[in-house]
């Protein structure tokens, strides 16, 4: 009997919900472990406080002597909350967060000790960073990397450690993390959007990109997860026949949340409240044991930090509740995968959502300006946007059999489609007073304020307008949002800069009125970006054909998709906007290709191990039972034995066939891997893993899954889909 599987199932059956302590009111504990404005007012001098606020709001530099004061205040606050250590908390290109804890504790003369945390330690650290991915940047120059304080994301206490959000850069200043280019992109979009927003309101001095992510995940019992080598090491099942019941009955989505899970969520949300992560929504998702968590949106840099932190917290709290969180985009074949919808918009310092329709024609023209420019940006840079969400795990969602395609398109709903159709007809050149009045009354003025409630939804669109924001749905559940957010904000910034130039030129050279000029340019953009707009079923085959006709890219695998990151246009875009240098871009490209190859390599090894060392031996055991049976029947029935043993004999043969296919598949897989590993060029290596190695996964899996259906359940060593997905 396969002991591990049945032990794990037994353990799971015996679980009881873990008790949790929830505060009476969440608002009372919100941000309690964050060095936020409240805490700063209490622990900092007025000068220090103002200096931090200026840095956050205006991007000014914090003087070193002020930093000394801030660090002292921060330390006192942290110690008062039980912190003993501090760490620079950053997001290297591994996808995880990194931290190295140092105690506040320091010894002084005479065998005495004090708690110390100086400005220097707050502002800059030099982690021994040689083992973080760097795409060759640090090797070429200098082995050191620096972390530097990012005052726009507040410090927080996690456990007993004061965590200080930082950027991570090389000695020569190249970004080695996700945050640095994101901050640069956010600054760029701020400037570009502010300049355009001033057409409509002179009081706008700052525009923040906002982000509300929706985190989908699976929750599996810890013991069950540990019983499967593939889940333990790769975060997904590499084989396993689908359960007789999956999600066909649609009975999980928004269903009642199982009590063990609910207690996990309550515990998690309490921790989130303390950390100032404004989580608000929780529900069951479509697949069994799949759930979602969403916050109230925030400024993008903070939202990105909060998502990274959340994923870490989710892991830790899950352990307390005897669960394992699966963030993988496709942990189980045949049921829905997980995404991380990135809801995105632009908000002014005057409190206006630039993607929210307003109450007057002028406000609606402002809305249309930002709305149409965003669509144009996506149209012009769809390949780069696709590249920003490419990863080995997201490949299972984008372009795979049962998932949305890898085509980027934008959905805007029928009402706005009508508006754009009308706008497309405006006169080329100056508009007559009559036309303008008509436009204002009948087109622009007609955009309903309550669009939010009226917009039709299209769940199949990768980039959908949902009433007052765009929702980038193709982002994978494991992704660090910084990557897609850097690209989205960069392309919108570039678009807005070029829009402003053209409008200004019409005003200056053609003596046009401001709104005439805006209408003229918007009309051109609507025409130029038609191919990206798609309102139909994004999952259908017809769309793939149609998209091809429209010249939209459909890059189904990561090595192919990533290439757009290093195209001439992309490099020019990032360099012109000062977001990334060519060296930084090339380094990232290399890191992502390498990561891709490594992930496939690891999965290939795991699959080889499971198939050869778990599945085949089990199949042989069962086959031997059958053989014994046939032998016995032959003794009893002699010549007639085939009347009784025929089916068993057919089974024996069937098992042998599957075993042969699996074993040959693994041999071929290993051969291909060997060949691939000889390749030095990283691009070619990634392609080899994608095109030569990975195809064997399907073949091997197919035959293993067939054996699962044949072999005695008592013998089967791998916890089955029905057990993983339906044990609560
Ligand atoms: P759904 O898309 O599932 O219907 P909602 O529309 O309520 O759900 O919002 C989903 C997410 O979008 C939430 O995280 C919410 O905070 C975020 N969101 C709402 N408005 C904005 C905005 N202006 N900018 C960015 N995110 C937003
Ligand atoms: Mg949504």
From TrEMBL:
Classification via SUPFAM superfamilies: Glutamine synthetase/guanido kinase
GO MF term set: glutamine synthetase activity
InterPro entries tied to this protein: Gln-synt_C (IPR040577), Gln_synt_N (IPR008147), Gln_synth/guanido_kin_cat_dom (IPR014746), Gln_synth_cat_dom (IPR008146), Gln_synth_gly_rich_site (IPR027303), GS_Type-3 (IPR052725), GSIII_N (IPR022147)
SMART domains named in the record: Gln-synt_C
Transmembrane parts of this sequence: none
GS beta-grasp domain mapped to chain residues: 84-173
Domain of life, per lineage: Bacteria
Gene3D superfamilies: 1.20.120.1560, Glutamine synthetase/guanido kinase, catalytic domain
Domain GS catalytic: 178-615
Gene Ontology biological process: glutamine biosynthetic process
Sections of the chain in a coiled coil: none
PANTHER family: GLUTAMINE SYNTHETASE, TYPE-3 GLUTAMINE SYNTHETASE
Similarity-based family: Belongs to the glutamine synthetase family.
Protein name: Glutamine synthetase
Species of origin: Cochleicola gelatinilyticus
